[in-house]
DNA sequence: TGAAAGGATGGCATTTAGTGACGCCAATGA
DNA sequence: TCATTGGCGTCACTAAATGCCATCCTTTCA
């Protein structure tokens, strides 16, 4: 998703630039959170690390803990875009496997480092309630995306109760697997040992939706 | 901690008293949150409403928003205890229906008022991120309880990955239905219109676990 | 029954997250 | 060129949250 880089800055320096600025702050904040803990990290420290005034930090983030949000969100961005690009005629297993191997081959170094930071933040969420909020917010985004995709596949509105229930169940299953895999990687498990992860995820999503989501759709 | 000292005995606020105090504070705080919004409610206000000093409030709650936690937790306590009391030989549908009708008959006024407050807090969680944290924490508790129950039914340890995935999916489905029913009740829908709620919940849990959880268990 | 002990509370000072107000400066546009 | 705009920094300030200490209340034991 990040292949586009050069020649930006057109028109106003707003949306994209703002996003990148938030990401820069988030990287430094996450690094500090991981190194010293959340409580031991002050807004002033984050500001100094990223080379901005404290006031500017608060202009871009509602709270200290929310500084972790962009990085955490990056950790689920792959899943979000994978869901978004799921063609109706493919099964979830096939699509996930293909996208996963593509990520393994094509991911940039920055993407890998951000992913690693995201995993650390998810780990921190275990013990730091403040960070847990950010993680759950990201999961909430995944759930909404999931609702859209499921609604499309089932030919129902995204507000339909069954769709929402399926989306919640599927994204919850996805969350647990994410936490599990992330924890294992931090423990030192070789990421290659998770070659079957896409299949496992697909299977979990299929099961969590009672089999309603996973098969190819023929309209 | 060397030697088994008389941990009870003298001094020390009993767990029960502490719990009741937190609940009292939570009732007032929730009432204020609902009436004026979270931001407009100060710690001093909560303290005055409950007749304690502000300092004491901070002794019993880590943060302002966490004052809502006990009430929100009460909103899921029924489900937790219902899950805990689920006999192996009953199907989920039958047990939930029985417990639900029992609650309708036997719930005290205080319980009903607390439940109403909890529903309001869950509603607030839609727009107030601070309260959403409390709601998601409560859902997390339900998920852990669910994992215990599922583990017992499936004869697996609660840490088993499949068990955790099933628990996450099931409790997420439960969460969405809770939010849906709560929102409808606040809109003025007659609670009697939700007579089929237990069946619906049971069905959703069964579906979310891929059918693995719901049937009677014969050991 | 009267200390003694120890936790619970309140008051005060202090730190820190977060906001408001104002001014500066760079980029844009006529 | 000047005026506008918008991001940023500085200062002042509100409110959340913690530490410290004096006090109160309760339980236990002599």
From TrEMBL, chains A, B:
<dbReference type="Pfam" id="PF00440">
    <property type="entry name" value="TetR_N"/>
</dbReference>
<protein>
    <submittedName>
        <fullName>TetR family transcriptional regulator</fullName>
    </submittedName>
</protein>
<keyword id="KW-0238">DNA-binding</keyword>
<dbReference type="InterPro" id="IPR001647">
    <property type="entry name" value="HTH_TetR"/>
</dbReference>
<feature type="domain" description="HTH tetR-type">
    <location>
        <begin position="19"/>
        <end position="79"/>
    </location>
</feature>
<dbReference type="InterPro" id="IPR009057">
    <property type="entry name" value="Homeodomain-like_sf"/>
</dbReference>
<dbReference type="Pfam" id="PF17754">
    <property type="entry name" value="TetR_C_14"/>
</dbReference>
<dbReference type="GO" id="GO:0003677">
    <property type="term" value="F:DNA binding"/>
</dbReference>
<feature type="DNA-binding region" description="H-T-H motif">
    <location>
        <begin position="42"/>
        <end position="61"/>
    </location>
</feature>
<dbReference type="InterPro" id="IPR041347">
    <property type="entry name" value="MftR_C"/>
</dbReference>
């Amino acid at each position: 998703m990040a292949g586009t880089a050069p020649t930006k800055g057109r028109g106003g320096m707003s949306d994209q630039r703002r996003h990148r600025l938030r990401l820069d702050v988030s990287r430094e904040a996450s690094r500090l959170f991981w190194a010293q803990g959340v409580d031991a990290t002050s807004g002033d420290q984050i500001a100094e690390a990223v080379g901005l005034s404290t006031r500017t930090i608060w202009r871009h983030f509602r709270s200290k803990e929310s500084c972790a949000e962009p990085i955490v969100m990056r950790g689920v961005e792959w899943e979000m875009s994978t869901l978004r690009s799921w063609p109706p005629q493919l099964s979830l297993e096939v699509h996930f496997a293909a996208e996963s191997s593509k990520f393994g081959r094509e991911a940039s170094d920055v993407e890998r480092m951000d992913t690693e930071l995201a995993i650390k933040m998810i780990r921190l969420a275990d013990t730091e309630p403040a960070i847990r909020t950010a993680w759950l917010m990201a999961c909430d985004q995944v759930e909404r995306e999931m609702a859209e995709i499921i609604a499309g596949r089932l030919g129902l509105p995204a507000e339909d109760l069954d769709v929402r229930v399926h989306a919640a169940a599927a994204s919850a299953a996805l969350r647990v697997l994410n936490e599990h895999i992330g924890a294992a990687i931090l423990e030192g498990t070789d990421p290659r040992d998770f070659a079957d992860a896409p299949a496992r995820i697909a299977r979990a999503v299929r099961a969590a939706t009672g089999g309603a989501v996973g098969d190819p759709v023929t309209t």
